[in-house]
Here is the input.
Amino acid sequence: MSETNEMTLIASKGTLDWAYPPLILASTGIAMGKEVSVFCTFYGLNLLLKDLSHLRISPQGNPDMPMKMPFGPKWFQGINFGPKIPNIMWNIPGLELFATSMMKKTMRNNGIATIEELREICIEMGVKFIACEMTIGMFGFAREDFIEGIEFAGAATYLDVAHTSNQDLFI
Amino acid sequence: MSHQTLDMCGYNCPMPILKTKQALAKMDTKETIKVTCTDKGSKKDFVAFCNQLGHTLVSQEDDGNKFIFYIEKN
Here is the structure.
């Protein structure tokens, strides 16, 4: 048994697919009675922006991504186009958006919550989000770009929070 | 015995756990909730969830497609 029941996550990635793991773990952690803090740094800041609609997946340089169509007959949906499409194809403008909309449809078909829904639940249940002040400055974001109720701080604050926690994950 | 019910069929991880947690928060101790879901991961997840929070997993049914959990609030 652990002495404390705290969990911290560092969210460092900002694509649609990588937005899921920190939000799923944070919400589940808090549902399981933990105190959860998520430190969002670099591209992970995307998770805290007011507008999440621009989050995308990128098949570019990601040859492991299974790519199955979320519509059509069963046999068609079973085909994995991922390894069949040369990666250079994803340079074509618009294809990343297409892949993103296919991914969103696949998620809907599978009853997976949207990033917006998950984030709302996280906030409702009391997950503490910390936005990395240094990367906000570096990327030229303004505080108004971010949702209400989050903390703005730096590495020392994260380490202070993590000091008493016993589950810390870098994502 | 009357109990609360929560239908999470069609919802995937982590929604069944999150909604159950929210429903439990509104209940009194010793009250029971019946959760129905289709998420295959839930079979083990609800055991872990109850174990962690001290709720009692009174019973668990599985007909291959649907999983039903009776959870008594701690």
